[in-house]
Amino acid sequence: MVELYDVRIKLIGNQKPCHSGHKIGEEWLFQDRIPAGICWAAYNSIFPFAAVLKYGGSFPWQTDPDVVTACCPDGEVVNVFELRRIPREKT
How many domains does the chain have? Predict the structure, then answer.
């Protein structure tokens, strides 16, 4: 069975203030549902990257296999998100 991970999403930069009110340093946890409070446009851009990390995959262009960056599609704001794979708590 594939080991599943959680993914921490953190807003690490932008060019202008976010129209949805997101602030640099804000964080969400990607688990089994859409994280509460995250903008739909940003989430739709982040989802493919978060899903790869969640299921143990990585991206060949990243130096750290547990981290990838992704941007929201708002060309004025350009929110940059860091996605980091983290082990799930064992229950």
Answer: 1
User: Is 29 within a domain?
Assistant: no
Instruction: Give domain status of residue 56, yes or no.
Output: yes
Q: Is the pLDDT of residue 3 over 70?
A: yes
- Count of other CB atoms within 10 angstroms of residue 30: 25
For the stretch 49-78, pLDDT in tens is 999 999 999 999 999 999 999 999 998 999
Which tokens go with 89? Answer: 């708590």
pTM score of the predicted model: 0.90
- 70 is in which domain, residue-wise? 40-74+85-91
Q: Quick one: how far is CA 48 from the chain centroid? A: 9
Contacts of 41 (CB under 8 A, 6+ apart): 20, 72, 73, 74
Q: In Å, how far are 13, 75, 77, 86 from 54, measured between CA atoms?
A: 23, 27, 27, 9
In this structure, is residue 35 part of a structural domain? no
